[in-house]
Amino acid sequence: MTMILILALVTGAILFGIGVYGALSQTNLVMIMMGVELMLAGAMVNLVAFWRFLHPEAYSGQMFVLVVMTVMALEMAVGFGVAIARFRAKGSVEMEEAEDLKG
Amino acid sequence: MVAQAFFVGVFGLAAIGFGVAVFRTASMVRSALALLFSQAAVGCMFLAMQAEFLGVLQIMMMATEMSIMAIFMVMFMMDPGGLGGMDMSHQKRFSIGAGVSAAVVAIAVALLSDWGPAAEQVVDAEAQTRALGMELLGRSMMIFETAGITILTAMIAATAVAIPVQNLSSKDDKEASE
């Protein structure tokens, strides 16, 4: 059983690493959001594995996963709101061009 | 147990493979679909780990979310089909280093920690869903309600940010001059 736990934790870690790469390397806002989604997916895999293999009697573990899913949905909603505003103002969602707020 | 390990491993590999494909393809629609398949594989991992409610919820939510994302990709990207072969990435070496470092540290923690004995059995899906409902409306009710209020706030904020800004002062001046 511990072997499956470690398998799930390693999968979550690799998904998190891919997400970090995507969030840092992409220049487009929507692609950056995809990287963040992968990072959150990695975190969720770990949470479910901890719940299933370490504390299956504690349902706050599943509750935590629901909170992370909520965060994913919120990130998408607010991110697309910002993307629409940015596209309307500048005609692009390329983040390399978004240097207006630099001091 | 062998079947569980097999399915967790297979769906884990699928999630990783599609996750890599998200940033490997030039077509933005393919990127969104790869992310959808990656998230669906994560949902299948939940099912394999006997978290049925969360697995089904993950697959349903991500199918909707990624479909919307694909539409936004087509709307916003300069080259959504990837036919021009544009490279839309920067600081690649730093990003690869950061991603590999994060994954290696997390894997090291997973492998080197003493997790103690793992639970052999969990209750069936019906009892789990009931217990989760009791948790949501009992001990974790404040967190659940806060999540609901946060979603409402984010919906209003996202709509407010997305609607076009009207210059009211110039409109008033125009009306006054007329």
UniProtKB/TrEMBL annotation, chain A:
Annotated catalysed reactions: a quinone + NADH + 5 H(+)(in) = a quinol + NAD(+) + 4 H(+)(out)
How does this chain sit within the bilayer?
Multi-pass membrane protein
Enzyme nomenclature, EC number: 7.1.1.-
Annotated NCBIfam families: PRK05715.1-2
Function as written in the Swiss-Prot or TrEMBL entry: NDH-1 shuttles electrons from NADH, via FMN and iron-sulfur (Fe-S) centers, to quinones in the respiratory chain. The immediate electron acceptor for the enzyme in this species is believed to be ubiquinone. Couples the redox reaction to proton translocation (for every two electrons transferred, four hydrogen ions are translocated across the cytoplasmic membrane), and thus conserves the redox energy in a proton gradient.
Family in the record: Belongs to the complex I subunit 4L family.
User: How would you summarize the oligomeric state and partners of this protein?
Assistant: NDH-1 is composed of 14 different subunits. Subunits NuoA, H, J, K, L, M, N constitute the membrane sector of the complex.
Which protein is depicted? NADH-quinone oxidoreductase subunit K
Q: Which gene encodes it?
A: nuoK
